Amino acid sequence: MQEVVDASRLDTELSADSAAYIEEIYEQYLTAPDSVGEDWRKYFDKFPKGDQPHSNVREQFLLLGRNSNRIQSVVQSTVSSEHGQRQIGVLQLIAAYRNRGHQKAKLDPLGLAKREDAYDLELGAHGLTKSDLDTVFNTGNLEIGKTEATLGEIVDAMEKIYCGSIGVEYMHIVDTKEKRWIQQRLESARGQFGLNADQKKHVLERLTAAEGLEKYLGNKYVGAKRFGVEGGESFIPMVNELIQRAGAVGCKEVVIGMPHRGRLNLLVNIMGKNPADLFGEFEGKSLHKKGSGDVKYHQGFSSNVMTPGGEVHLALAFNPSHLEIVGPVVEGSVRARQVRRKDIGGDDVLPIIVHGDAAFAGQGVNQETFQMSQTRGFTVGGTVHIVVNNQVGFTTSDPRDARSTEYCTDIAKMIQAPIFHVNGDDPEAVIFVTQLAHDFRHTFRKDVVIDMFCYRRRGHNEADEPAATQPMMYQVINKKTTTRTLYADQLVQEKVLDRETADQMIEDYRADLEAGRHVANALVLEPNTKMFVDWSPYVGHDYTDVWDTTFPIERLKELGTKMRELPEGFVMQRQVSKVIDDRLKMQTGEMPLNWGAAETLAYASILDEGFLLRLTGEDVGRGTFSHRHAKLHNQVDGSTYIPLCNLKENQPRTAIYDSLLSEMAVLAFEYGYATTLPKSLIIWEAQFGDFANCAQMVIDQFISSGETKWERACGLTMLLPHGFEGQGPEHSSARLERFLQLCAEDNMQVITPTTPAQIYHALRRQALRPIRKPLIVTSPKSLLRHKLATSTLEELANGSFQTVIDEIDNINKADVTRLVLCGGKVYYDLVEKRREKELNNTAIVRIEQLYPYPEARLAEVLAQYPNVKELVWAQEEPKNQGAWLFIAPRLYDDVMNAGKQVRISYAGREASAAPACGSPYLHAKQQAQLVNDALAIVE
Q1: Does domain 197-284+300-529 correspond to CATH entry 3.40.50.620?
Q2: Mind listing the pLDDT tens digit for each residue in 831-864?
Q3: What is the rounded distance in angstroms from the CA atom of residue 380 to the CA atom of residue 255?
Q4: Which residues in 623-716 belong to E strands, given as ranges?
Q5: Rg (CA), the chain
Q6: What gap in Å lies between CA 823 and CA 874, rounded to an integer?
Q7: What architecture (CATH level 2) is domain 804-935?
């Protein structure tokens, strides 16, 4: 173990000016040990082996004790001369360019951006002057092909590398290998991007396509919204290069998420949407067979394109107007595709997410999505993020009002992602950065960001007048030559092609558009359909309430026994051991089953029948209320064991992950996953149902409406703990009323199960039935261990999900004059009170499925009570919340249709702005009162 000494004992010269010099020599030693002097090599050989975080290298040198005298003599002999002092300044200058060169880079095509002065990039900041420009210095580990060069050559190289059309931020990365990889790729190029003549022509052809479509649409559909890419045309060759480069190294699928701007252009010029179909949408033709449909710049698409490595399937995700929420949806879809290909985090599927500058900086879902990127349950092996940076934001915002830092991309530094800023008016720089970004993701399996500085030629949309709020900017834009024209002029000047050829590209593209021909030059017209996710088994079925969810009882017992088998030496915590032991008795028929036993048997049976299972949420392994214990923890060594993963050989994938503390991004991820793998049971559980509030836009814009807007089926299940237990406003309600308000067109299922058998059959029905609809479960808390909330193994094996559960006590139905309808936990409060008071004129019926509303089954039950005078809806929630406002008009219709004179009334809490009170005393008083009101008890 090395002795550590106080830094003050070391020579002052060593602890200050020499630190940067030593660090550069150390970097050079790590890259090529033989390139440094013998004294240095012997010293560094004693350094701890392995990758060292170079943000701490200087501190490490200062804190080394045993060899401190030796390193002092080495440094002093090396830097004691005046030239040696200037050499240190040179190495400090190199470090400054790597750290701050991006602040001097020529990124803004308009030349308007105000940049912070980077004093570190001046010679004087490091004790150097112009008189040193002809002096030869050691280049340290600067990758310019020589170990010595004049200061002038060094500065010239660094200006080209770090201060041209590309500005790079990577020195915030801790991993030295990643930093050195970026450094080598950047510095060895020295600002030369290496495109040959054919590649340059291809870039011009794609720019011609990007500009040509926008001009054509602008002339044909004057004033129509299209959110054109004008001013950012380099986006099209950028995405094209990403796809082709990914395909060349074996990628099979690329999933893209993006907002409005440039979307139509990408659909036509990259993905191969027929221009005639797009024109039809502009003319008001709907391509949807049913439902509301959506505007054309929200639509998704899929196709296959050819790359050097073979056919690649492209999928553009459907998205709403929430500009960034599609990001985690894409990640979920990518993860599902990787699971299907058995290549999680690998090369088979590449996610590309496109952002606007203001949205990238401003919308919190990006932070959540970045935070997921390297977690075990949500990683996809890195995402390429593209920011189409128009420098205005949404409509009128000034960057000073849109964020608190210089760049909109600073949020990506939280996960140490490299950030490549690039001037969109330099297409070759854009292509170089694109290659670099792809290769970084491919090499390190981590996120990377491309920030393409461009501008908006037309404003937020084509009906907008941007000069009203950005007068100075649009004076420049109105006079500005387009990116395509600038690049065509450059290639003509370089004699890559002549003017006639460049102009003919424009005519050829326009002719293709007018003829209705595909203009995506890599489109595969007869794609390999095996690359698609097959949804055909889940299309065209009737939505029925009943589905066979029976399962052989002997096999259930076998699965229950199997789940109790643990690895040798696995020691459970005492209370958990008791739960698992009792569960074995429940699952083999020796005692009634509770909720956790039935739920885990449902999962086991689904896996046994070949369906993938994925369960995520903030506390799903154990369960927030300690009922599930699907993931067991060894008390000896901290290892974990998941019995559901070990039911039999070659069983379907089972994934149970405790997620990061996020609702919005995680729920969006699971939605994307569920829309991609239909033969599965995908579940997201909220820690408390109330917390679904934090993911409301996912519920509103995807889960409830995705099918009617985009014809996207989704079988996602949401488990939302719900029940009034006196825990206050934020731990009582899953906001049942919000889900019910969104219900229409058979878009979702909303259930309030009250028995273990009901949750068992509901989960099995969700997987087995060949219909994929979201399932919203207001799952219990206190019922998880309630003495009355039990089921038998026979009910699991031979039963089915009941949309309505009739009165279970032995009451003469002809004597019933008061019929109480309810759902969820309140049933047990009602039935216990009714039994206590022996109210034989009152029956209690549970509506277990609120939507689709079980009209026929409920009518069948009500018909068995011929003498009912009053129909009461009882609920725990306030009157303006819960199910009352949803179910009341339906009950009135039911009564009228039956031709009965029955009074309909409400029993529950009064209307309230908050879901529940904060006082346990008041809660108990309210609960007792609503039960009495429901049962007509006066106390």
Answers
A1: no
A2: 999 999 999 999 999 999 999 999 999 999 999 9
A3: 12
A4: 632-633, 640-641, 654-658, 680-685
A5: 33
A6: 8
A7: 3-Layer(aba) Sandwich (3.40)
